[in-house]
Amino acid sequence: MGALVLVAFWLMSLIWGLAEKARVAVGQEAEVRHEFEGLEVRRHTLEANLAELDTPRGKDEAIRTAFGVAKAGEELIVVVPRATSTATSTPGFWQRVRHWF
Fold first, then answer.
1. Average pLDDT of 52-63?
2. Domain range holding 53?
3. Residues sharing a CB contact under 8 Å with residue 52, sequence separation 6 or more, in sequence order
4. How confident is the model at residue 75 (pLDDT cuts 50, 70, 90)?
5. Are 60 and 54 in contact (CB under 8 A)?
6. Is residue 58 situated within a structural domain?
7. What pTM does this model have?
8. Would you say residue 79 lies in a domain?
């Protein structure tokens, strides 16, 4: 009778271990599926970028962006911010009095 109880506990521990491993596997499967979906989105983006670079306009844009070059006949426009003027104001009465001390 005691041996039967020990075998039952041993079998229950095995089943408990298998259930824990199954739970871990399901959690990892969800993580891997999420990672796979992210990689699929990245693959589609890279394929779109390659398709764009396969056109003459795409190559031209990539070269302009990477090396900062311009086509023949294009000119450079430099935008200069306006100079800020410093406003001079006359000091108030108390500022003049304080200046004496």
1. 90
2. 31-64
3. 58
4. confident
5. no
6. yes
7. 0.46
8. no
